[in-house]
Every structure is written in structure tokens, then in C-alpha cells.
Write the C-alpha cells for this entry.
Amino acid sequence: MATPHMASLYHELQRVFEARPTDLAKTGKLLTQLKIGLVDAGLYPPQGASNLEDLVVTRDILEIGALWSTRVKDIPSFDRYFSQLQVFYTDYSSVLPPSKREYPIRGLNLVRLLTQNRIADFHTTLESLPLSADQIAESPYISHPVNLERWLMEGSYSKVWNAREEAPTEEYKIFVDSLVGTIRNEIASCEEAAYNSLPLKDAATLLFFRNQTELLSFARERGWQIDLTGATIHFTKKGEEKIEIPKEKLISQNLAYARELEQII
Amino acid sequence: MADVEMKPADTIQDKFEDKKDAKEPTPPPTPAAEIKSNIALIEKAVWSLEPRFAHRVLRSFTALRKKLDDAVLREAIQEVYPADSTVKGSLLSWLPEAPTRESMDVDGVPTTKPPTSDPVPEVQIYLQLLLIHHLLTKPETYPKAITLVKETVAKMQALNRRSMDPIAAKVWYAVERVHELAGDLAEARPLFLAAQRTASLRHDDETQASLINRLLRNYLHYSLYDQADKLVSKTTFPTSASNPQFARYHYYLGRIKAVQLNYTEAHTNVRQAIRRAPHAKTAPGFYQAVHKLFVVVELLMGDIPDRSLFRHPVLEKALSGYFDIVKAVRAGSLSQFQATLSQYSAQFEADKTHTLIGRLRQNVIKTGIRRLSLSYSRISLRDICFKLHLDSEEDAEYIVGKAIRDGVIEGRIVHEQGWMECDGQKSGYGPEVSEVFGKRIAYCLELHNQSVKAMRYPLNAHRKELAAAEGAREREKELAKEIQEGGDIDDDDVGPGDAF
């Protein structure tokens, strides 16, 4: 490390972060100090050929930073840490010894993309992982988000719900919890289309609500008709959809054909 | 018997004569002679500023490459360069020492006269290109090839001649090949990027097209889809690029779009790639790769590819795994799909389609539900769960609900009874028909426009027409003058129409 001061700060950070329960405020303060130190040492971002040991320490600090940001639920900060870490995971991968935190953090990033509904980015990131299909299935950190995505796409929402318990590390749960809101809205829109009416009790289980008041306020938000005496929800059908002829689209299409034909003749 | 044997020989002779008449005197096609005639063509291309001739040379490049050996190259270099040329020495130094015997071809080919001066530099680059490919045939000469490639690139960039562009584009392919065989493809990237910038500044379309493809391939080789996508959005692929380059570009684009879940665009691009691809027999590898991607993208879009595709002689074997996947998706059987996926997983992994095929799972489920909804008017969730091999009834309820919302099936769930009721299907003749129709028309129109653009016109051909037009204008002027001079004769004559 560049200076003895930095080294002591780094050890302090490690100690504070490993301690249970972690003192999050103190970790944050240490991280800020260390980052300034790293900038002075020209390691943030790393430039050219640096000392191997320094690079490992820098990576370690950034990894702690990424995990810390998820714990304090600061997603943009996680984003920043992750993009800085990517340099270490891709460009320096042949030089540096592999980090044991690499896949947990990559997995976290995947879950983050899922919660933000950035499915295309999710797949691009997944594709660029240097892992074969078997390795993905074996690594709990990566297979977790992969399964989540699959279940979300095919509609097995109960599996997503149950997966909260199977999260490989604590940090995953924070992200998965924010998924629940998305899922609920998805399920609600499915129910509106698929049911005429639904008993209140079943609706609560389908939507993963523990008590009725939560359900009632949710139903009011979506504008469902609640029949309290019969304890059922009625979904208003949005009238029989008439097949409309998309006039404007057809006209513009035909004009385009005419223009092209004109050019040919 | 003799008659029968004579005939084919005669026709061959005839054809040969024809060719001789058509082109300049063609030497018998020994490889060395072929190289020489190619060099003549390159010189012609340089003098006449017609890239057409250079393209003709490069078209035969692949075939010629296979016939190369040390003796052929040496002979070609000996005959093209004058005896005391320095370039000749440096070119020959790449080949192993010559056996001392004289070349046999000397009396076979009517050599016109020994060359007195060095030919144009394009010829040197062309010969070096041949040398590189020759060096790449044997692993022990790889290091030599790398040094030669570096030298060639440096020379090419120093010369900066527009007439060299077609050959330069090929040289970049060789650069990539050298790096790939040496196993350090990633290191060629900065070189390509720098060259691409220069090429786009110099409006060197051929090189640009070639380099963009090199870069895309490089990125996709390392699965860097993000960077590849950025490259595509930051560059414009030159419209004057040749067909094979376009085919590659469309293929890479198709792959990027497919990974990004933009299946419609992926489909358009892959279809363009198929259309522009060389004939199946000449480039079977590319043909197969494109079709693999095509099948997967088509499945992801919810379509089932044509069965005849899988009977194509070139594709039949290569696509067998994909055929099984198609069958599983068509049947809507999850277990069959999973079995096929694990059976061929090594192949799909090698083709880099594994994750794409993994995404088909949801399509399989959708097809399954659709089939059930067509055949039953009412079916319990338990049965659905059983028939589709789902894990629980609960899942089945959510999945069916999603299918109804997404418009895959028409129907509703009755929760109290635990079954799904299906309505009859819609007539199926709605606005979406015009959409499909529109898509096909758009494809045909684009095909037409591209073929118009692909037509070539010889340089300066319009001069003749211009001259004719000039003459006509001249005559018109004279006529106008005459009319003016004789104007006072018939003042009240309103228009020329009356004169007729």
C-alpha cells in the first residue's frame, strides 16, 4: 500500500466490515477516506501497470463498497462501484488472482437489472459472463438471478416469492424484496384479465398479502369492486374489445407502397 | 468408342478457345501463371482506376490460396520483378531456400519480355498477402507470418493509395487470421480500432467494411455484446461494401439484436444475411451458422421454421440438434425440450446459442397451453399442471393467468372450481394479417431497391450520352437562331403546332 496511513485505514475497514452487526455508518466514512487515498495513489481508476498487491487491495475496497451500498440501499452507488469493478473483472482477470466476492457481486448486479426491469441489459450481461452453462447452473450466485428471470418470464410467481428465502447472501434479499412490488402489479394485471371474480381470501394468497387491510388498500388503488358481504372481488371487464381497423396505419402503409411503386416504374 | 471420347475433349478445347478470345491471352492455369495474370489485372486496375479488375482478382483468391506452395510463389516473384529489385529480395527471403533447378515453366509459357522495372506497389502487397496465407498453412511458420503481417500493414498505411483499398481490405482479414491462430485475438483490437478510424477519415469504404466486421467478430468472440452494440451505433457501415461483407455484418447484427431480445430486428438482419450469403456449397460454414441463428430467432419470435430447411443437404447434419428443439417447441412438451437441451448442450454452447435456446422455455409452455386451450373447452388446473410437467397447481394458475393477459389464449380461470374455461378462437382474420402482408411487401421492396443499388455502371459511360446531348443542344441553338432571324416573316404564327 502507498502509505502506512492507508494500510491502517484498509485494515480498519476490513475489521469493521467483517464484524457482525456491521457498523454501516463507520464503513461509509472509511470508504470515503480510502477512495480519496486511492485517487492520490493513482489507483482509482487504475492506470497502466500497477503493483499487483495494490490492485488487489483496490479491488477489495471497491468490493466492500459495492456490498456496503446494497446494505444501505443506495442503488446508484452500487452502480458506480460495479462499473469500477468491471475493469478488474474483465481487463485484469488474467493478471489478478480471482476474488471470492466476484460472483456474488456479479450476481447482485444481475438481480439489480431484473428489479429495474432492464431485461435486455440482463441478458447482455449474462452473455458476457465467462462461464459455461454448467458453471452457471453450479454457481449459486449466478443461478439465482437466472432462475428468477426464467420464473418471471414464464409466470411462476410463487417460485419467485419462495426464492426470497433461498437467496445466497443477505444482500440479495434487499433486491428481491423490491421485486415483490413489481410482481404484485404483474399478478394483479393477470387477474384482471383472467378472472371474473375472486374470493377475498384467495386473492390475498395469490397476491402474497398477509392481512386483509393491505389487500383492501391495494384493491382500491387498482379500482377493483369489492363485495364485502360476499367477501369477493369483482373485476370489471373492459367491455368487449371491438376489432378496430387501424385506419391510419393502413393508409400510411398503402401510401408507402404507392411511393415505392412509383420509383420502380 | 473413339468418337465418344473425342467429343468432350473437343468441347473443352472449344470453350478454351472462347475464353481466349474473350479475355486477353489466358495462360494455362498453373497457379504461378494464375498469379501472374492476376498481377496483370491488378496493374490494369491501378492504371485504369477501375477497382472492378482488382475485385476479379480477389474473387479467385480463396481458390488460389489452396494451390499455393513454395515453388509456385517463388516462381511468380521471380518472373514479376526484375533481377536486381530490392523488393524481390525481401519477398523471397520469406520463403525457404530454393532448390537450384531452373523453373520448368519457362519454356511452357510464352514469356513476353523480362520485366525491367518494379511493378506497382499494389502487386507487392498482393504477393505479401499470398505469402501470409501460405505461411499460415503450417504452425511452425506462424511467427514469420506475424512479422510479415506487421510489415505489410505498416507499408500499406505508409503508401496510402486509394487503388490499394480492395487488397488492403483482404490484408486486414489476414491480420485477424494471424492473431486468431496465434491465440491473441484481443490484442489485435486496438490495431483494428486505429485502422478503422483512419479508414473512415480517408473514405476507404472497403477497408472500413472489412474492419467493422473484424471488430464485431472480435467482440462477439469474447461475448462483449455491449461493446459490439456501441460500435454498431457509432459507425455507419458503408453502403458500397461488397456482398460478403454485408452478409457478415448482418449476421453479427442479428446476433447482437437477438441477445438484446430485439427479435424482430434480429430476424430481419439474419434474413438479409441469408440472402446475401454466398452459395451454400462455396461457404457451407457461414451458411450453417446463419441458419442456426435463424432457426433460434424464428422460434423465439413464436414461429416454426420451414421443415424443408432441415432437409437441405448442407444443413441437414449441422441442424439436427436444432431440428429436435423445433420438434419439442412445436409439441409444447417441456420434458422433451429439457432432454434435447441437455443432450445437445455441448453443441449449442459451441455455437453460442445455448442461452438463446434456454429462453425458449417460456415459448414451450405457451405453445403447450395454447394446444390445451384449443382441444378442451374446460380443463382443471391440476390436469394442466400434469400435462405440461409444471411443478405445482399454484404455478399453473399464475402461468395460465399470464397467458390470458398476454393474449396467447382466450379464456378465463374459475378459481373456486379450479379450472380454466376456454372460449372459441377468434376468426384469425384481423388487422394482424395486413401486418404480415406488409412485412412481406417490405422485404420484396427492399430486395428490389438493393438490387438496383447493386447494379454497376462502367466509369465514364455517360460521357457518350453527354456528347450526344451536347450535339442536340447545339442543333437546337442553331434552330432558335434561324427562327429568330426569320422571325419577321410570320409574326402572328402562335406556336410550332401550327407549322405541322
In short: Chain B touches chain A through 48 residues (CB under 8 Å). The mean pLDDT of chain B is 77. Chain B is about 65% helix and 0% strand.
